[in-house]
Amino acid sequence: MAVERVLTERIGALGKKIHTGRSRNDQVCTDFKLYMRHRAAEIRALEVSLMETVLDLAKKYFGKMMPGYTHLQQAQPIYFSHYLMSMFFAVSRDVKRLDNFLELHSELPLGSGAMAGSAFPYHRALVAKELGFNGVSPNSIDAVSHRDMMLEFEADLAIIANTMSRYAEDFVNWSTSEFGYLTLHDAFSSGSSMMPQKKNPDSMELIRGKSGRMLGNFSALYTLVKGAPLSYSRDLQEDKEPVFDSVHNVKVILRVMKEALESARFNFDKMHAKMLPALLATDLADLLVESGVPFRDAHHVVGSLVGEAARQSLEFTDLSDEAWEAAGVPNVKQMKKTLTFEYSVSRRNIEGGTGPKSVKQQFSKAATILKAFKK
To answer: Is 192 part of the annotated catalytic residue set?
Structure first.
C-alpha cells in the first residue's frame, strides 16, 4: 500500500491502477521469495569464500601433524590439513543445499491473487522472466499459503550455523592452555574485566551460541505453520522475523570464521608435543594383522599392552621388549622401530584418508568443486 501511495503521489491517478488483479498475499509472497533467493546467493558466496580460505590454509600447512580425536580422546595421528579439509567438504554440502534451494523455489507467486488467481489476463510468464524466476506457480492456493520455502531456508541456515559451531567448539578447546594448539588474533578475542591474564575466544563462543539461536528460529517458524489452515491467515506474517534474524546472523558467523582462521596462529610445536605414543596402538594392531595374526587377537594383544602400561604409568611403547614378546608380539625390535607418527599417516593413502597422497587428492577435488561453484 505504501508503494501504491508513493507512486500515486509521483504520477497521479495512474498509480492507483497498479493493484489491479493483485493481492497483498501474492505480492508479499513474491517479495519474500525474492528476498530469500537474493540472500541465499549472498550467503552462498560467503561460504565459497570460506572454502577458499580453508583450502589455502590446508595447502600452506601441508605436512604438519596433530593428534586426531574421538570422544575428545587422542585417537590416531592425522595431518592438520586433513582436519581443515573436513571443514571444506562439510561447507561444500551447505553450498549444495543452497543450490538445491534456489533451483526448487524458482516459481513466481504473483498472479495468484488472494488465493483463487487473478481475474485479469496477467502475463505471469513475462513477469517471472523479468524478476528472475524460472516459471510460475501452478496453483494459487499453494502459492500464497505454503511456507515450505521459508522452512527449508531456515533449515539450511541452521545447518550452516551448526557446522560452524562444531568447529568453533574445537577452536575454543584448542585455545586453552591445556591444548595450546591455537592462538586467535586479538581482534577475535577479548580480555576479562577482572582477570588481566585472560584471553577469551569470544568469537568462537558466539558462533557456538548463535547456532542455538538459528535452531530456535527454525523451530519458531515450524511451530507457526504447522497448524495454519489453508489458504491464508494473518499469523503467516510472522514468518519474516525469524528469517531476517537468521540471515543476519549466518552472514556474521561466516565472515567471522573466515577472518578468524586467516589471522589465527596455529602452534604446531605444541600439537606435536602433545601427540602420545598411544596414538600408534591401532598401527601396531595393523602390523600384527599383516604378520598373520587375526585382527581380534591383534586387538587383544595391543589392549593387553596398553593395560599393562597404564598399570605401570608408562606408554605402551616404553614397555620392555620382553613384555611385548610375552604379550605375543613377534619381531619386537623391528615393530618398535617401525612405529612412528610419520609411518602411521603414510599408511592411510586410501581415498578420503589422512595419508599424504590422499590429502593431495583432496586438494585436487576441492579445486574442482570450487571451479564448479564459481560457474
So the answer is: yes
